[in-house]
Specification:
Length: about 260
């Protein structure tokens, strides 16, 4: 399995499209973080002696919880673009029609898919860590005169861990969906549709239990503070939902690869 995973990871690292998409995502994250940087620094400077902050005028919140929530939320916001990266990785062999060669090298479908999923997870893991690092760097600039040690607390690292877990699991889901569809664009469209349903709040009010089964809602439930945000389920539920999406779609991808001709 290690040689197969190494081979798949090498494929990923030699794809120009993967580097381009990765660069765009990281550059966009920097740009997005730059926009509210001054407003956040001003809000931190005005933290009251009682420890409250007004990130939004007229909405005082406990400063520690609010800042950690913004740290997690900033990374989550950019995590929505990561499935595009996974779809590009999954679709490259279908675009180049090289899947048949891969099957000849690894005729066992499950082993081949497992190597692809593991290689994708490793690559996304690194990108997610970079996103979390960028979020932390910008937050450090905002809080360095107040409490920079907050960014080194267990709560902060747990927040990063939850984001990275979401990023990897959601990208594995996007990878598997693209593999089933055998088309990068279709994989992206399906993933964006799943995100859009949550963003539109179409189910959150009418059917919160159903909404909690969607991957982005599960990510919100996993990452955000229930004391500050209106969530639809617990963190444990969110984690299980994300694992379930990754597992079910991976099984679907394995069945698809085993039933269709490799091309």
């Amino acid at each position: 399995m290690v040689p197969a995973t190494r081979s798949e990871l090498t494929k990923i690292l030699t794809l120009p499209s993967v580097w381009i998409v990765t660069g765009i995502i990281l550059a966009l994250h920097v740009l997005v973080q730059l926009q509210p940087a001054k407003l956040l620094a001003d809000a931190v400077a005005d933290i009251t002696p009682a420890g409250t902050i007004e990130v939004f005028i007229g909405e005082p919140q406990p400063a520690t919880e609010a800042i950690l929530g913004l740290l997690a939320g900033g990374s989550l916001q950019m995590g929505l673009f990561l499935p595009v990266l996974a779809a590009v990785i999954a679709g490259q062999e279908f675009r180049s029609q090289q899947l048949g060669l891969t099957v000849l090298a690894m005729p066992r479908t499950v082993r081949m898919l497992a190597a692809k999923l593991l290689a994708t997870a490793l690559y996304v893991l690194v990108v997610a860590i970079l996103i979390a690092g960028i979020s932390t760097a910008f937050m450090y600039v905002a809080v360095k005169a107040w409490n920079p040690g907050l960014l080194l607390t267990s709560e902060a690292f747990l927040g990063h861990g939850r984001f990275i877990t979401f990023a990897v699991l959601f990208c594995l889901t996007a990878f598997a969906i693209t593999t089933v569809a055998r088309n990068t664009l279709t994989g992206i469209i399906v993933t964006v549709a799943l995100i859009a349903i949550t963003m539109s709040q179409a189910l959150a009010g009418a059917a919160p239990d159903l909404d909690a089964l969607l991957p982005l809602s599960a990510a919100r439930n996993l990452m955000l503070d229930p004391g500050i945000n209106d969530l639809t389920a617990s963190r444990e539920h969110g984690l299980l939902v994300l694992i379930g999406w990754a597992a079910v779609t991976a099984v679907g991808a394995a069945i698809t690869l085993s039933k269709r001709d490799a091309r």
